[in-house]
Design goal:
The complex is a heterodimer of chains A (294) and B (423). By secondary structure, chain A is mostly helical. Chain A has eleven helices and two strands; from the N terminus they run H-H-H-H-E-E-H-H-H-H-H-H-H. Chain B contains 14 helices and 15 strands. Classes of the chains: A mainly alpha (294), B alpha/beta (423). At the A-B interface, helix 1, helix 4, strand 2, helix 8 and helix 9 of A face helix 1, helix 2, strand 7, helix 7 and helix 8 of B.
Chain lengths: 294, 423
C-alpha cells in the first residue's frame, strides 16, 4: 500500500512520543525492581494517586506547575511510608511475598479513591501554556503538551543516570544491589538507601500520573491498564535495567505505532508478541541481569 | 470537589439501606399502612454496581428506587408494598446468573429488571426464562429481542444500538457530512455500531473513507491519527464507549483532528462528558435516549427530573430513565392487570402506549421492544453551561419510528404476532 512520506514520518514520530510515555510510566517500576528486587504491583495505584494528587493541587492552587513539584514529592513520601511500614518486612523472602503485598496494597489504594472521590473520573486539562501544537516542517503538527512530556522524560532519564552513575549515593545504591552484605560491612545503613530508592520509584510513578492526566484522564482504574504496559516495557528491557527500559520503551512505541498503520486491530497484541519473541531469545530481557528472581 | 460525589454515594447507600428497613419494619413512611397486611411485591434488580459501569449502575439503582418509592407513597400496588432488591453482578455473566437465581429461588421475587452489558443481560434473561418470570432489560442490546433469546417473559425498556445508529447516522448524513471514517472498539459495541452506521450509510449513499478497529481499553489513540488524517474524511465516527470514548475524544481534541473533520459518537453520556471536561467534547455530536433538559418541553420529564433531583441531588441520566421507566412499567402493568398472574401482566405490557418520563413510548407485542425517541446532543462550552450537570444541548429529537428497527425477518420473529401467543 502506498503511504505518503509525511504520514510515515508522522507515524514514526507518534511512535517516538508513545515510546517516551512508555518509558516515563515504566521507569519507576524498573528502578525499584532493579535495586530492591521487589516487583511493585502497586506501581499503577501510585500512578493513579499521582493523578488524583494533581487534581487536588489544581483545586487548591489552580496551577499545574506547582502540582508538578508537589505531586512527585508527595508520592515519594507516601512510597517511603509504605516501604518503612510494609515492604521492609518482606525483604529477603521469596519474591512472591512483596508481589502479593503490593498487589493487595494496590486494591486498597484503588478502593480508597473510589470511596473518597467516587467511581466517576474527573477532567484534567493541560496547562494553558501547552494547549497549542507545534508544526514540523509543514509535514505534520504535534501537540505541544506531548513534546513537553517527551522533554520531561528525557530530563528524568538523564538525572537518574547522573544520580546513579556519578554520585556517592548512586555508588552505594549500585553497590547495595550487587552485595548488600558487603555494603553493610563497610558501615553503611543500607536500609536508608532502600527507603530512598522506593521513594524515588513511587515519586516517578506520581510524576507519570500528573503528566498522563491531561492525555488519559483521571479515574480510579487508570493504573490497571498502565501497569500492564509497564511490565511489558520492563520485561522486554530486562527487569532492573534502566538502559533496557529506555530502549525497550522506544522500541515498543515504534512497534505499536507502525502496527496501528498496517494492522490496527493488532496494536495491543503486538507488544505481547514482541515480548514473547524477546523472551524466547533472551530470557532475562534485552539488558537484564540473569538470576535476579531466583 | 470530591466531597459532593462522596456524599452522594453515601446518601445513596444510606437511602438504599433505609428503603430496605422501611420495607422490613413497616409502613411508617407509606400513607397506607394497611399495605403491610399483605406480603410485599418483590422486584429483583441486577446491575454491575462494581466495575467499569459502576456509576451508570448506581444511576439505574437510583432510578428504580425512585419508581418504587413513588408507588409505595401512593399505597403500593394491589394494596401491597413494593420491595426492590438490588444486586451487584460485577459485570460478569456468571455472577449475573447466580444473583438472578438467588433472587428467584431464595427471595422469590415476582419480577426482575435491570442490567447493563450485553452478556450479563442475556445471562439474567436465561434465568428468568427458565423460572417463567418477567425480565425487564434496561440495557441497550441488539440480541435481546432476537428469536434466539427473546421469550414471552423478556422485555426491553432500552432501545438498541441498531436503532440509535440508524437515527444518528441519518442525521449525520443530512447535517454533518457524507464521507465517513469509522474508528470502532473491537468488541460488541464497536461492531454493532459499525454495522448500523454502514447499513444506514449504504442506504443513503455515503462514502467510507476507512475503518479502524481498536482493541478495547486502548489508552493511547494517537498511533491511529496519521491514517485518519490521511484519509481526509468529513466525519469521524467514534464507535466506542466509556473510558475508550473518554480517551479517544481527549486525544482527538489534543491532536486538532476536529479542525479537519467533524466528530460524531453513537452515544454521548453525561459521565464521560464530565470526566473529559469542556473543551474535548466541544463541537462533537452524538446520540442519547434522554437528557434532563427534556424537562423544559415534556411534562412527564419535568416531573421525573424534579422528583429525581429532590431525591438524589442530581439530575437523572439515560440510565436512570431506563430503570425508572422499566420498573414503573412493570408495576403499572400489575396494577392494570389487577393480579400478579404472570400471563395477565404480560398481556398488559404488550402493545401498551405510555409516557413515563420522556414522551410517548410503546412496547411492541411481537418483539417486546420499547420504541422511543432518540436525541441528537451537542456539547455546551464552558461559557454556555449554567451548572455542573448542564453539559449538553438537545440539537434534535428524532421521533420514534417502527421502521428504524430491523425487520421481523432479521430478528427471526413474526411481525404482528404477540410473543404472548407462545404461552
Amino acid at each position: 500500500m502506498g503511504i505518503p512520506f509525511n504520514i510515515l514520518i508522522f507515524q514514526i514520530f507518534t511512535g517516538l512520543a508513545l515510546g517516551t510515555i512508555f518509558i516515563l510510566l515504566a521507569i519507576g517500576l524498573s528502578l525499584i525492581f532493579g535495586l530492591l528486587t521487589v516487583v511493585n504491583f502497586a506501581h499503577g495505584a501510585f500512578y493513579m494517586w499521582g493523578a488524583y494528587a494533581a487534581l487536588l493541587c489544581m483545586s487548591c492552587f489552580g496551577n499545574f506547575w506547582i502540582g508538578l513539584i508537589i505531586v512527585p514529592a508527595a508520592l515519594g513520601s507516601a512510597g517511603m511510608a509504605v516501604e518503612y511500614l510494609l515492604i521492609r518486612r518482606v525483604y529477603g523472602l521469596n519474591p512472591d511475598y512483596p508481589l502479593l503485598l503490593t498487589f493487595g496494597l494496590s486494591l486498597i489504594m484503588i478502593e480508597v479513591v473510589r470511596m473518597v472521590f467516587g467511581t466517576a473520573g474527573y477532567p484534567f486539562d493541560a496547562p494553558a501554556l501547552l494547549r497549542g501544537s507545534i508544526n514540523f516542517f509543514n509535514l505534520f503538527s504535534f501537540p505541544s503538551y506531548r513534546i513537553f512530556v517527551m522533554a520531561v522524560t528525557a530530563a528524568v532519564i538523564i538525572c537518574l543516570w547522573l544520580f546513579l552513575e556519578k554520585t556517592n549515593v548512586g555508588l552505594i545504591i549500585r553497590g547495595g544491589t550487587r552485595d548488600s552484605e558487603m555494603v553493610r560491612a563497610l558501615g553503611i545503613d543500607i536500609s536508608k538507601i532502600w527507603l530512598l530508592v522506593f521513594g524515588i520509584g513511587t515519586s516517578l510513578a506520581g510524576l507519570a500520573g500528573i503528566l498522563s492526566a491531561p492525555m488519559r484522564g483521571v479515574y480510579p482504574e487508570m493504573g490497571i491498564a498502565m501497569l500492564v504496559e509497564c511490565f511489558v516495557v520492563t520485561v522486554v528491557g530486562g527487569m532492573g535495567s534502566l538502559k533496557g527500559a529506555v530502549i525497550s520503551g522506544l522500541l515498543l512505541g515504534q512497534v505499536v505505532s507502525l502496527s496501528a498503520l498496517f494492522a490496527p486491530a493488532m496494536s495491543n497484541i503486538v507488544i505481547f508478541i514482541a515480548m514473547a519473541f524477546v523472551l524466547l531469545i533472551r530470557p532475562s530481557g534485552l539488558f537484564g541481569v540473569s538470576g535476579l528472581l531466583e | 470537589m470530591g466531597d459532593d460525589r462522596g456524599s452522594n454515594r453515601r446518601d445513596f447507600l444510606r437511602s438504599i439501606g433505609a428503603l430496605g428497613s422501611a420495607a422490613a419494619f413497616g409502613g411508617i413512611f407509606t400513607k397506607a399502612s394497611f399495605a403491610q397486611a399483605k406480603a410485599p411485591i418483590k422486584i429483583g434488580f441486577v446491575v454491575p454496581l462494581t466495575g467499569p459501569y459502576g456509576t451508570e449502575a448506581a444511576d439505574q439503582a437510583a432510578g428504580a428506587t425512585l419508581a418504587v418509592e413513588e408507588f409505595n407513597a401512593k399505597g403500593g400496588v394491589l394494596g401491597r408494598n413494593i420491595e426492590l432488591l438490588v444486586r451487584d453482578d460485577k459485570l460478569k455473566p456468571d455472577e449475573s446468573a447466580r444473583r438472578t437465581q438467588e433472587l428467584l429461588e431464595k427471595e422469590k421475587v415476582h419480577m426482575v429488571a435491570g442490567s447493563i452489558g450485553a452478556n450479563t443481560q442475556l445471562a439474567i434473561n436465561e434465568q428468568c426464562k427458565r423460572a417463567k418470570t418477567i425480565f425487564m432489560s434496561t440495557s441497550a442490546s441488539n440480541e435481546i429481542t432476537m428469536a434466539k433469546d427473546v421469550s414471552p417473559y423478556t422485555f426491553s425498556e432500552a432501545t438498541n444500538l441498531w436503532i440509535i445508529t440508524q437515527a444518528v447516522g441519518e442525521w449525520t448524513y443530512k447535517h454533518v457530512g457524507k464521507k465517513w471514517f469509522i474508528l470502532a472498539a473491537d468488541y460488541g459495541f464497536g461492531w454493532q455500531t459499525t454495522e448500523g452506521f454502514r447499513a444506514i450509510g449504504k442506504k443513503l449513499g455515503y462514502t467510507e473513507a476507512g475503518l479502524i478497529n481498536h482493541p478495547t481499553g486502548t489508552t493511547d489513540y494517537t498511533a491511529y491519527f496519521p491514517k485518519i488524517l490521511a484519509a481526509q474524511p468529513e466525519v469521524l465516527l467514534l464507535c466506542n464507549f466509556g473510558k475508550d470514548q473518554l480517551n479517544s475524544v481527549k486525544q482527538v481534541h489534543e491532536f486538532g483532528l476536529k479542525k479537519k473533520m467533524k466528530v460524531v459518537c453513537p452515544l454521548l453520556v453525561i459521565t464521560a462528558r464530565r470526566e473529559a471536561g469542556d473543551e474535548p467534547f466541544e463541537d462533537i455530536h452524538g446520540g442519547a435516549t434522554f437528557y434532563w433538559e427534556m424537562a423544559n418541553t415534556i411534562p412527564t420529564a419535568k416531573t421525573f427530573v424534579n422528583g429525581y433531583r429532590k431525591r438524589w441531588g442530581r439530575p437523572p441520566t439515560d440510565m436512570s430513565g431506563y430503570a425508572y421507566s422499566g420498573v414503573k412499567g412493570l408495576l403499572s402493568a400489575v396494577q392494570r392487570a389487577g393480579d400478579m398472574d404472570t400471563k395477565k401482566v404480560i398481556l398488559k405490557l404488550e402493545n401498551y402506549v405510555y409516557d413515563y418520563y420522556k414522551g410517548k413510548e410503546w412496547m411492541r407485542a411481537w418483539d417486546h421492544r420499547a420504541m422511543q425517541d432518540i436525541l441528537v446532543l451537542g456539547s455546551k462550552t464552558a461559557k454556555e453551561r449554567t451548572e455542573e450537570w448542564d453539559v449538553f444541548n438537545i440539537v434534535e429529537v428524532l421521533k420514534a419510528n417502527d421502521k428504524q428497527e430491523r425487520s421481523a425477518e432479521a430478528l427471526g420473529l413474526k411481525e404482528g404476532v404477540p410473543l404472548s401467543k407462545m404461552l
